[in-house]
Write a structure and sequence with these properties.
Blueprint (H helix, E strand, L loop, with lengths): L1 H18 L8 H71 L6 H10 L2 H4 L3 E10 L4 H8 L20 E9 L15 H13 L3 E2 L3 E2 L5 E11 L2 E11 H8 L7 E7 L6 E5 L10 E8 L2 E9 L4 H4 L1 H30 L2
Antiparallel strand pairs: 1-2, 1-6, 3-5, 4-5, 5-6, 7-8, 7-10, 9-10
Helix pairs in contact: 2-9
Length: about 350
């Protein structure tokens, strides 16, 4: 009996030896394939997150740029419309003057007061009717201006007879005192005369460059000639104060933007006005050409808001999530590799 039991134990022991096998070692090639996979998957996740993040940023940036362009176009178009209204005032004044041969200084002043002109056209300094007078007509013109319909008996011409035509304001409406130029020959200055003559040659409105007005304000003026049978008899003269006019022109535009106006006539670049003292480096700038008489003004509209405030939020979140996921995958793979090594 004991011998039978001993034989059974020996047989079971030998059977266990035959069935119990040691773990088979993984080949070097197999371990290499596992390591590459462990690295490729996190890299693929990170690359995918980066691609998605960039695409989201690009689309978000395009939305921001398009939004800026729409706002900038709107501001520039409003400025153009307002400037056209200012120019139309020239023709309204001309139409009123030629409607009657007896428009007096009081009539002129009352007409523009009734139109509430200076409230409707901020920055407008004066609206004047300028008559051309020859040497032979000086005495008669002075007598007419000294009547109660115009400037009264204190009026005096300040002019030298030189055989050329002279230009005098015979009627005006102004929101400031321009009495210093009443009676003065506006064509006495060669540069001013050239501008008046240019208006005649053009047969349409012309504008001066920026200059100091008689009132001491920095501004410019626009001229429109009035001709009868091909002969120029008079002009409509509008003068503007730039520091008041330009904010009014841009009123109602986007307050989150900044504006700059430069005179670019004939390739010149003369600063006219800017809403900021120092024009900063900005990402988005929209340009619009404006016409003032025969002069070209470049209106620049810039966005001061940094677009990164919004455009980077979603891409950063996506990229961060990708980095976290890739690191988690890499950490798991490294832990499995350590476990595999211990059990080898």
């Amino acid at each position: 009996m004991l011998s039978h039991i001993g034989c059974l134990i020996v047989q079971l022991s030998m059977s266990a030896k035959r069935t119990t096998k040691k773990p088979k070692k993984q080949s070097a090639f197999g371990r290499l394939k596992l390591g590459v996979a462990e690295i490729i998957v996190p890299i693929a996740v990170l690359a995918t997150a980066g691609a998605i993040s960039y695409d989201v940023y690009r689309q978000s940036s395009q939305v921001v740029v398009q939004s800026f362009n729409d706002r900038a176009h709107g501001s520039a178009d409003r400025a153009t419309e307002v400037l056209n209204n200012y120019t139309n005032l020239l023709y309204a004044a001309k139409a009123y003057q030629v409607s009657s041969d007896t428009v007096t200084q009081a009539d002129w002043r009352n007409y523009f007061a009734a139109q509430d002109t200076f409230r409707r056209y901020p920055g407008l300094s004066s609206v004047s009717y300028v008559e051309l007078v020859s040497d032979s007509e000086l005495d008669a013109f002075e007598q007419r201006m000294r009547t109660s319909d115009f400037f009264g008996p204190s009026f005096r011409l300040k002019v030298e007879r030189n055989g050329k035509d002279h230009g005098f304001i015979s009627s005006y409406a102004a929101q400031n005192d321009i009495s210093a130029v009443i009676g003065s020959d506006l064509l006495a200055n060669p540069d001013r005369r050239e501008l008046y003559e240019r208006a005649v040659r053009a047969g349409s409105a012309v504008a001066s460059s920026s200059l100091e007005l008689a009132t001491g304000h920095r501004g410019f003026f626009v001229l429109l000639p009035n001709s009868v049978n091909g002969v120029t008899k008079s002009y409509i003269l509008l003068s503007f104060r730039i520091e008041e006019m330009m904010p009014a022109v841009l009123a109602g535009s986007d307050e989150g933007m900044i504006y700059r106006v430069t005179d670019v006539t004939d390739g010149l670049k003369d600063p006219v006005w800017s809403s900021v003292e120092q024009w900063p480096e900005v990402a988005n700038v929209h340009n619009k050409q404006l016409r003032i008489g025969d002069r070209s003004w470049l209106l620049e509209v810039a966005d001061t808001e940094p677009r990164s405030d919004n455009s980077y939020v979603a891409p950063v979140i996506i990229l961060s999530a990708g980095v976290i996921l890739a690191m988690a995958l890499l950490r798991t793979a490294m832990r499995e590799a350590r476990d595999f090594k211990r059990g080898r």
